[in-house]
Structures are given as C-alpha cells and as structure tokens.
Amino acid sequence: MLKLRLKKGGRKRQPAYRVVLIKSDARREGRPIENLGFYNPISKEFNVMAERVKIRLDQGAQPTPTVKNLLVKAGIIN
After folding, report:
1. Please, are residues 6 and 64 in contact by the beta-carbon 8 Å criterion?
2. Which of 24, 31, 21, 20 is nearest to 1 (CA)?
3. What pLDDT, on a 0 to 100 scale, did the predictor assign at position 78?
C-alpha cells in the first residue's frame, strides 16, 4: 500500500518536512517514490503539488492523519 506521509528534514530544533509518496512498510527516512511538497511547522508554510496529490489519491494512496489534516486546511480534499 502507498501512503502520503511526512519525511523529516531540517536542522536541530528547526524541523522541516517533505510530503512524500512512499510504501507503507518503508522507514520514515526511506527513499520516496515521489516528492509532492513540503511543510514548515515553524512558519506554518505548506506548499504541495495539488494536481499530483489528487492523482495519487485517485490511484489509491492513503494519507496519514497529519497529512490529511494539512490537505483539508489547504482545500485540496474535503
């Protein structure tokens, strides 16, 4: 199964995350199938390729609860 999940990056005490498409059994820092955007929790900046996310969701990818909340706030999904 494929998941839309956050992949952690950034520096110490300055987290930044990438929204990635990855196999559900892969580790968090594993190699993603596709990078779809990023999220910075400090500045609340969220940028994602909406068309690619919709395509992947239609293909059966499941977002994690955190990614789903971000997509709802961005107005990409209901």
Report:
1. yes
2. 24
3. 82
Phi (first) and psi of residue 64, to 5 degrees: -70, 165
- H or E element at residue 63: strand 62-63
Q: What's at 75, amino acid-wise?
A: G
The CATH class of the 2-74 domain is alpha beta
Cα dist from 78 to 29, 30, 75, whole Å: 28, 29, 7
Length of the chain: 78
Q: What is the per-residue pLDDT across 14-47, written as a single tens digit (0 to 9) for each?
A: 999 999 999 999 988 889 999 999 999 999 999 9
